[in-house]
Amino acid sequence: MDPQRESSPEAPNTGASARRVGFAEEVRFQEALLRRGAPAVRVGVVRERVVSFGIGVVPDAPYLLRARKKGVPTVPRTTGGTGVLHLENDIVWAVILPRSDPRVGRDFARAYGRLGRGVVTGLAALGIRASWVGAPGLVNDYCPLSARGEILATEAKVLGAAAQHVTSSALLHHGSVSWEVDRGEVDELFALPRGGPSTKLGGVAELGVPGGPAALAEALAQALSKELGG
Known about the structure:
Elements: E1 18-21, H1 23-36, E2 40-46, E3 50-53, H2 62-69, E4 74-76, E5 83-86, E6 91-98, H3 112-115, H4 117-125, E7 131-134, E8 150-153, E9 158-166, E10 170-177, H5 183-189, H6 212-228
């Protein structure tokens, strides 16, 4: 899958696209790729602050009401998990594969390490050692700190999380990597104690990566495309 720079939901690409994206539009694009069902990789740099929430979350969940009251847009996902605060310059990524693809397998719901291996490889190319590990189970409402699935973490910090939407014909496995973290905002929106669970969250910017968010997105795009391009 060679990276492509221009595409649209009407003619989905089968490559990686590392560019600035609106979160809601990107979610819709990924769903269009899922309906198409062909192998695809997407990577983008978020251009606004937004709270996304999984399909099992009620639209009037307290943290969503608090976000809207503060003027922070809330965006539903068709994937699982709970809420996530995404900031400008965070990275969003997605892998779409047909159900018949052997890389999906029967264990896809537990295959974070396999389906997200390109994210780990891309970070490693920038000198960041991270891995997919069991979720910490600290709070229910904030997805990267919940007990569901796996999270992307260094030895000290949680950098991101992932979720899935599976249909009879294809799988969408997508996630985000934090560039920065606004722990105060996370605490306020998700009613967490100051200096508590949110201290476990970290951003790539804190690790001194050169080149900014664009370089991180490009590294992830190349690694995901290489990993799933065979």
